[in-house]
Amino acid sequence: MDEAKEKFGTSHDSAKEAFEELCALVDAMMVRGSEYKSFFFQKYLLKNLQIWHLAQKIANLASLAYARSLAGGDMFATYVCHPTQI
Predict the structure, then answer these.
(1) Quick count: other Cβ atoms within 10 Å of Cβ 48?
(2) CA-to-CA distance for 22 and 15, rounded, in angstroms?
(3) What is the pLDDT of residues 22-59, one digit of tens each?
(4) 78, exposed or middle or buried, with CB in 10 Å at 0-12, 13-18, 19+?
(5) What would the pLDDT profile of 50-86 be if each residue is shown by its tens digit?
(6) How far apart are CA 10 and CA 68, in angstroms?
(7) What is the pTM of this model?
(8) Which phi-psi region, left, alpha or beta, contains residue 23 (left: φ > 0; alpha: ψ -120 to 50)?
(9) What are the Cα distances from residue 64, in Å, to 5, 6, 38, 71, 72?
């Protein structure tokens, strides 16, 4: 903070230089922020896709268990894994 006070207090040129440095830092932070935002959005989409695939897998397994129960399998699967209950 003392360094910033010295730059702003000495002359107009040094204040302008300090302001330009500050602007450069803010620009760098904005670019980095948009990179992070893009990264986390891609990660979010990947997780949603994984959840969708798992839901499809569960639905397929449940319907397979229900079909097996109709074909004469165990009666437990008929009541537990009925596709309308998912």
Answers:
(1) 10
(2) 10
(3) 888 888 888 888 888 888 999 999 999 999 999 999 98
(4) middle
(5) 999 999 999 888 888 777 777 665 555 555 555 555 5
(6) 85
(7) 0.48
(8) alpha
(9) 73, 75, 39, 11, 13
